[in-house]
Amino acid sequence: MRKLWRFTGGIKLKGFNKPSNTSSIHQIPIPEKLILPLRQHIGEATEPLISIGQRVFKGELLASSTSFISAPVHASSSGTIVDIGKYSIPHQSGISETCIVIETDGLDEWDSNITANIHPEKLSRENLHTIVKSAGIVGLGGAAFPSAAKLKPTRKINSLIINGVECEPYISCDDALMQSRPDEIIRGVILLQRMLEPNECIIAIEDNKPKAIDSLRTALEKLANAGVLDTTNISVIPIPTIFPAGSEKQLVKVLTGKEIPQHGLPYEVGVVCLNVGTTSAIYDAVYHGQPLISRVVTVTGSEVNQPDNYNVLLGTPVVNLLNAAGSIGFSKYKLIMGGPMMGMNLPNSDVPVVKATNCILVEKAEQEKGTKVMPCIRCGTCTTVCPMKLLPQQLYWHAKSKNLEKLDHFNLSDCIECGCCAVVCPSKIPLVHYFRYAKSEKKEHEIKLKIADQSRIRSLVRESRLEKSKREQEERKAKRKAERKKKKASIPKKDKAIEGQSTSVPEKIEDKGVKTKKVAKIAKG
Amino acid sequence: MAIIALTMLALIFGVLLGYTAIRFRVEGDPIVDSIDAILPQTQCGQCGYPGCKPYAEAIASDQAEINQCPPGGETGMKALAELLGREPIPLNPENGAADDGLPMVAIINDATCIGCTKCVQVCPVDAIVGAAKQVHSVLDVYCTGCELCLPPLCPVENCIVMISVEKTLKTWKWSNPQFHLEDSAT
Fold first, then answer.
1. B124 closest CB neighbour out of A433, A434, A459
2. Are residues B77 and B57 located together in one domain of the fold?
3. Does B184 lie at the interface with A, CB-CB under 8 angstroms?
4. pTM for this structure?
5. ipTM of this complex prediction, to 2 decimal places
6. What pLDDT does B146 receive?
7. Given CB atoms, is B36 within the 8 Å cutoff of chain A?
8. How much is the average pLDDT of A54-63?
9. Which among A441, A458, A460 has CB closest to B173?
10. To the nearest whole percent, how much of chain A has pLDDT over 90?
């Protein structure tokens, strides 16, 4: 039995049933239109490589970027590019970003260049890395961090953690995936093991998913008995169900006892963390050459008839998903992408499913309005549940007064926005909303400072340039004055000497020289 | 004896002070720089001075009040008050209305620009490029929104106008949840 640690805080969430908890994954029919945002990941946006009117095949590369932290975008189905323009993206803000729109032809024709690898076990580490990068794979747990960037750590990795925890209530896409594709996940883990060469490899699953644990353990045994692949270092570890155990920092603490340093990444403590969905996507990319063009999405909530898991092509509008799941009460509902704890509201149902979409939650719109916000009574319950050891009540206080210095002092940037504090707050204060607000306030302040610095430098440069040109002008003026004086002084001498015309000729030339200079100056001015 | 000792001490300290005065000389006025760091650097001149630095110098030498900077707004004034240990005072309406927080940039209409270079010369941060009788253009990433290039400086009507900067994911802000509390109070 492996020793497990306990992270501070966290809560045991009750009252959320998991109606979507089934082992089946349904297929959503190909939508008429696919909307693919150029940025579906953390990092730089990609640049489109195709043009409007072009016919594309399923899996064809549509957009890419040369940046290290970025992930290319591929066509989810065959069809024609009808637009490259601004469309509303799945984000709280309702902001539009550049998207590629494909009108599908229903043929679902694969790109002929995509072929299965015959000997995936023989690929080199470098080859594997290139495959993962060019397949556009990002973290499918919800953060959408480009996976390839994680797979080139600069130090020795002790533990590879495969995250199948899925701690948010309602969401069950990873659970369903672990039950339906255990073999693929383990083969993916073996590929990752070859790339990272860790001492151990842990597949962590919350103990409220016994079916998933069983299915992975059985698959692991089968593979071990077959003796084709080396599975000795891989273990499936059930962990206690405490929210937010699926968060990277908390999971590393539970499994290794190590804490990731502030603003640091897991590799700094010798750990790499990847989601089970990501692992299965890596399997598809390496074994079948298929880029990331679909993902499993949970559709659930009080306003859904048949909550279930669906395999959805990326770019499918959310409304298609709702139709498939039989959403009722279409007039008054709110859409949340992600879980009830950390998810964000969607502006409308036309936004597409992207790489980060793990769950679509359809809730009654009134639910929030019913709660009355009361003043903070400083009970300190939020502090006891904060998994990041922060002081939410202090942060709340300073967020309200926009005291950025104090917010820094209380480490606002460490908040993972898990929502534990807001759930336990007896005054029903929307604490996470306050922290998100304070974070964006701070970000804006930083941008302002940066712009101010830039303007300061530019105005200084301009001033010194103006001064310089003024000085030069004055110098030239003084020079000319001096010359004229000289001339004046020399003319009477010449008169006296009664020299011939020979001397006057060079004088004229000099005059002309001055004139041409003047003309040049006017042109310059 | 006492006189000799004191004279010696005076000499030693005199040399020491003289040395430190040369060795640790501070170029410029540190107060002006810290005031300048708070000012928004729009270089708009609404304060009555030709730029942020001159205004900072005026504040430092007590020739100007701290409430003359509309782009800095209430927060800027408060920061200045805290830095200088003065009482916060309301913004002076004579200097213009306080910034509403929406960043604006100038944009030049290519069709109506006559290429007079007036705006090129007045732009405090060199954010307008153009030559005589050529169409000018604003480098929007550098534009501070100072409005110095707007008519009457620009001789053409509707040639230079201010537009608000489009919100991106990087500049989008979460709303202030304050209203929730007020809602419940009523």
1. A459
2. yes
3. yes
4. 0.83
5. 0.80
6. 85
7. yes
8. 94
9. A441
10. 57
